Amino acid sequence: MAEWVDLLAWGDAGWGDEMIRGAFWTLLLATVAFTLGVAIGSVGAAAKLSYLLPARWLGQGYTTVIRGVPDLLVIYLLFFGGNQAVMAIARGLFGYDGYIELNAFTIGAIALATVSGAYSTEVIRGAVLAVPRGQIEAARACGMSGWLLFRRIMVPQVARYALPGLGNVWQLTLKDTSLISIVGLVEIMRSAGVASGSTQKPFIFYLSAAVLYLALTAGSNRVFGLAELWANRGVRRA
What we know:
The chain is an all-alpha fold. It is 79% helix and 0% strand.
């Protein structure tokens, strides 16, 4: 126990501050990626529910490809191809021929947002389909405009139905941040790996990493649970 305390001490004497800093970057990366993923998922759901056949094809192709390949492969593809893609866009649109390099955080956020967006697409699409048609027809019968119907009927109802599924997507995104250690971002797993390599005490640091992940996921469960209670306020239980 004393060895555990010494190794996880704060400051130069231990690795406690490095592990907490890694947890901060993990949470920040997951938050950015999840937020972008929900935005992507909203667009993807709209595409899959569109009356336009090409839009449905694009939405279906996106979710099929991203959900059909390993998350690590998506990260590798963006890590090795992202810089070239950005430079090609900069050259084509602005005539810029210099070298552009995306940092590890940006690559990680884009990669995880791409993955979580595919799952969020299906969650949001299912939530839209779950909204009772009678409510939409009643709103139209009352003379609601399309925007008013969207704001007062669709958004609250879709949010209520989607929250449980989006909570699962958040947990997947949070745990997938561990894969970003391969591109050099110092999050929880990278911090644990550096500390274990320096001290030759891998069990202590990887167990500490597990505790940090459990703390983050448990806190997330609580937050999403409160959000679901808020979203379901006034709803009559069967």
